[in-house]
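User: Run a structure prediction on this.
Assistant: Running it now.
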Amino acid sequence: MTLAAPIALGAIIAYLQSQPHTLELVRMILYTREFPQAYTLHANALEQILAGGVP
């Protein structure tokens, strides 16, 4: 999941920036019961991406 989070978020962001769409919301469902760190990993990856860095 550590490697998957930035890849998934990067793919979503790339799609939203490059393709015409009418989406107003993208929701990721993270199952924290199976992987308690899921939210934290994705939040950290998103922060790094938005700051212009590569996670």
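Residues 6 and 45 are 5 Å apart (CA to CA).
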